[in-house]
Design a protein that fits this description.
Structural class: mainly beta
Radius of gyration: 15 Å
Number of strands: 6
Number of domains: 1
CATH superfamily: Bacteriophage SPP1 head-tail adaptor protein
Helix content: under 10%
Mean pLDDT: 84
Oligomer: single chain
Shape: globular
Low-confidence stretches: none
CATH topology: Thrombin, subunit H
CATH class: Mainly Beta
């Protein structure tokens, strides 16, 4: 993979739950062991879905980066204040790059 398209510096965070006294949990987002990643972000489509009789806009993005083994579904990728939730991690056959299929997250 050529480094030219990997021009977006992204931050990677993962969820950490802490139990509270009432039995619930507080979720905080902590930086990954290697929090920075150079990637190419593509926004191929956007869609509007009907959820519980209300319309919810969902922007999907495809993030292409060098292969990493520590990123899993449910983690977040942030670039310039836009946060994406990783829905799926798809490595290529040579394990040299990966595609992250993401959905947009309202800014926390």
């Amino acid at each position: 993979m050529r480094a030219g398209p990997l021009r977006h510096l992204c931050k990677i965070t993962f969820p950490h739950e802490e139990r509270n006294k009432s039995g619930g949990a507080t979720v905080t987002w902590l930086p990954a062991a290697r929090p920075d990643m150079w990637a190419e972000i593509r926004t191929p489509s956007g869609r509007v879905s009907s959820v519980a009789e209300r319309l919810e806009a969902v922007v999907t993005a495809e993030i292409i980066a060098r292969s990493r083994t520590d990123i899993v579904a449910g983690w977040r990728v942030t670039r310039r204040g836009i946060t994406y939730k990783v829905e799926a991690v798809l490595p290529d056959n040579e394990n040299s790059m990966m595609r992250l299929l993401c959905s947009s997250v309202p800014n926390p």
